[in-house]
Specification:
three-stranded antiparallel beta sheet; about 160 residues; disordered C terminus; single chain; alpha+beta
């Protein structure tokens, strides 16, 4: 019962973004590059104090090409061992969904890998935070010309 409540709460929190973390929507344009983000995978504790796996950190690399997420992959420095592997392997299926969706918004966690799924979403969002591309339609605040060239010459 406790697991269902916690799983439901995590899903609702991610959907409503109660975590305070940025959630990147499809259509967001990012700076090209490969960005890394880390998140902790923390197991749920049952009534008897048991957990299914050991807590660990996951670092993901998010490659952005032409302003869009091109790939998500496990950072080569991240080692996942023991019982953590089975949960990671289930949740890693989310990588393709994140690429296809253009972000994490609206995606569901993977059943039987909820904690790892939530950490994957968080790591991707952490990687992309601060790498949103500037909107080319937004004028440069220092540009008085109205032509959006950014040369600040006054245009006359």
């Amino acid at each position: 019962m406790k697991k269902r409540f916690l799983s439901g709460f995590l899903a609702a929190a991610m959907t409503l973004n109660l975590t305070g973390l940025p959630v990147f929507a499809a259509g967001t344009v990012y700076e090209d590059g490969t960005w890394s983000g880390t998140a902790s995978v923390v197991p749920e504790v049952d009534e008897e104090g048991w957990t299914d796996f050991e807590a660990y950190d996951i670092t993901l690399d998010v490659q952005v090409t032409d302003g869009k997420i091109a790939s998500v992959s496990l950072n080569e420095g991240t080692v996942i061992s023991g019982s953590n592997k089975k949960y990671y392997n289930r949740a890693a299926a989310l990588y393709a969904s994140i690429v296809a969706n253009g972000g994490t918004e609206g995606l569901d966690t993977v059943s039987s890998a909820t904690c790892t799924s939530a950490a994957i979403f968080e790591a991707v969002n952490n990687a992309l935070a601060g790498h949103e591309a500037a909107d080319p339609e937004t004028p440069d605040p220092g540009d008085n010309t109205g032509d959006n060239t950014g040369d600040n010459t006054g245009g006359n």
